[in-house]
Amino acid sequence: MTHRTLPQLLFEKADKEGGKVAFRQKNLGIWKEWTWHKYYREVESLALGFQEEFSIQAGDRIGIIGDNRPHWIVTELAAQSIGAVPVGIYQDASSDAMAHCLHECEPRILVVEDQEQVDKLLDIIDSFPTIESILFYNEKGLRSYSHDKLMDLKNVQSIGRTRASEDPSFFEHQIQKVKPLDIAFITFTSGVTRHPKAATFTHTNLIQTALSIHEVDPVKADDDYLSFLSLAWICEQVMAVGLSLTRGMTINFPEEPSTILNDLREIGPHLIQAPPRTFENILTRFQIRMNDSTRWKKKIYKLTESGIEKNARAKLSNRSVSFLSKISYSLNDFFMYSAIRDHLGLSRLRRAYVTGGRLNKDAFEFFQGLGVNVKQTYGTVETTGYASIQRDQEWSAEGAGKPLPGLSMSIASRGEIQVEGLQVFAGYFGGHPVTEFSTGDYGKILDSGEIEIRGRMEERLALDSTDGRSSSEIETELRKSHYLQEALVFGEGRSYLTAMVTIHRASVGRWAEKNQISYTSYRDLTMNPEVIELIRDQVVEMMASLPEESRIKRFVILPEELRLSDGEMTSTQKTVRRTVEKNYKRYLTALYNDGGQFDTLSNLYSEQTNEGEIVPVILLDRSQGVA
User: Fold this and answer.
1) Interstrand relation of 271-274 and 460-461 (parallel, antiparallel or unpaired)
2) What pLDDT does 612 receive?
3) CA dist list (Å): 22 to 225, 248, 354
4) Spatial strand order in the sheet of 402-403
5) Mean of the pLDDT values across residues 610-617?
6) Which of 27, 31, 425, 545 is deepest in the core (most CB within 10 A)?
7) What percent of the chain has pLDDT over 90?
8) Diameter of the chain by CA atoms?
9) How many Cβ atoms from other residues are within 10 Å of residue 603's Cβ?
10) Regarding the domain delimited by 6-267, which CATH topology (the fold level of the hierarchy) does it fall under?
């Protein structure tokens, strides 16, 4: 299939399987279906409308901003069908972040979902005179808007339908002009270590990556997939576009971001992907609900909980279990585990890919022990999202699987991972084409052939007494506590490690209520002495499994949750270290100052910043004194 393009695959699906379901979109509580034929006709009308109304030419860029909807993918395929290049922009990006993306790729037109996106764009549109029009496909709240660049997408499609009726074969000839090595998509790197860069991908990149995943984990034509991660993310493109068009699986779109968990239960997909924090949050919510359930349910779960651990250990060590153990697990599964999977919407799930990072060991073992086939993966934007996937029966909490078919991975100097193959992206926009890529991550290849990722080269903490270790490994360990939401570890060039953490609002809030601790805000919780004691105990527990030189000595609880709007988080749920360090520079200074007041009872240093703010610095044990 790599000798074809995505629009050509769509044409074949519509021609051979036109009546089958391609999409489901939930609207007002009802799942509405789109057949492959409808999908194709919508793409046709929009592509011809782009040509007729805006004279879009091959190579022109069309920006797309919005939640996961059929319209998003229709716009993408319409652009590709006429040789234009769709540019995915994260829907939760701030106006400044959007401006950066628009400067980088210079689109001629923008297709956006609703009033929220229109408002952000109208704030900055005067800085982009080359943008000819903003097309929207949800008119709610926009009827009174009169900006001369605003236009309803339906009007463009109406123009295209007229053109299609005049020459029914014209569009089919158009899509045959597109070549597999043409640029099919532009998205942006995460921006965790530097400003986001526009990465370009060919049709071959997306199709080959999808086919390689299918070769490892076969995808069936009647499989269901729930698309809830931003379509601007390349991993979501591989699934919702690449695997959909190559394997024919049905893509389901949630009604709203807030309804994802309910929609997950209704669809019961066969395949999902999500960042580690999504799986960790699912586990935390489950633990909270279990703690709040009836005494009877808690008692049953307690009786069966050890079976989850035993099953996980057996699977991860690849050892056989006794006949009695199999009977015990089957009974537990019938009475408890299957009900939990069903409650979480994972009852039909065959595979759950962890993308964008490594899932912590406790969460990984919980899902595996529960019978959920969670798989660690590795990839970067530049490897079209995926470079390696764990094979069935070869699971491990530490590894990230073997390279995908068609991709080779090697270890360069200082342990940096390099990749080469058809999945490697076409290059950064405006730059030179590439055939191999240095990922900026370091790790090693195990004897089994599995890759082990240690962290980013930039995150390698070189203490003044050691060669260094990855901050991400320690941060992953800290996030094993369901009372901690985020963690950032520091120590480069210092004599000891420190951390900034944020608490899990719901989990800590529930704990506070049960212990009759009153609070009115997140900040109140972070300053409460009993909460501080709880978090200290959690950090001590999480650090116990690490060697002494990898343990943090002090930490602070940040007074606010990290926010995407402040640039502290990316749209793919990664923390932006440089921004957090900048926004909380006073806290970092306090972590390494020894001039504050030490309270031997609370085991806290109280540092006063230049702004007069008191920062409680938490020590992990009293014997440290001044660390």
Assistant:
1) unpaired
2) 58
3) 11, 7, 25
4) 30-35, 21-27, 250-253, 224-226, 271-274, 351-354, 374-378, 388-389, 402-403
5) 70
6) 425
7) 64
8) 84
9) 17
10) Rossmann fold (3.40.50)
Instruction: Return the pLDDT at 623.
Output: 47
Paired tokens of 37: 């034929």
User: Distance between CA 594 and CA 554 in Å, rounded?
Assistant: 12
Using the structure block, give the residue that is written with the tokens 């591989």: 238
Helix (H) or strand (E) holding 144: none
pLDDT at 608: 58
**Residue 141 is which amino acid?**
G
Q: Which helix (H) or strand (E) holds 551?
A: none
Which whole-number Å values give the CA distances from 431 to 196, 200, 425, in the listed order?
Answer: 15, 10, 12
In the numeric block, which tokens belong to residue 60?
A: 């022109």
Q: Where are the alpha helices (DSSP H) in 496-604?
A: 505-514, 522-527, 529-543, 577-583, 585-591
Q: Cα dihedral sign for 574, 578, 579, 580?
A: positive
Kindly report the CA angle at 441 between 440 and 443, in degrees rounded to 5?
Answer: 145
Q: Work out the average pLDDT over 409-423.
A: 91
Does residue 45 contact residue 157 with C-beta atoms inside 8 Å?
Answer: yes
Sheet holding 85-89, edge to edge: 150-152, 133-136, 109-112, 61-65, 85-89, 183-188, 198-202, 427-428
Among residues 178, 245, 148, 188, which one has the least CA distance to residue 63?
Answer: 188
3-state DSSP of 211-255: HHHHHHCCCCCCCEEECCCCCCCHHHHHHHHHHHHHHCCEEEECC
Non-local CB neighbours of 231 within 8 Å, separated by 6+ positions = 64, 68, 72, 73, 76, 88, 237, 240
DSSP class of residue 391 equals P
* Distance between CA atoms of residues 452 and 440, nearest Å: 14
Residues 251-280: pLDDT tens digits? 999 999 889 989 999 999 999 999 999 999
- Cα distance between residue 600 and residue 93, in whole Å: 45
Answer yes or no: CATH 3.40.605.10 is held by domain 466-624. Answer: no
Domain boundaries, the chain: 6-267, 466-624
Spell out where 52-179 has E strands. 61-65, 85-89, 109-112, 133-136, 150-152
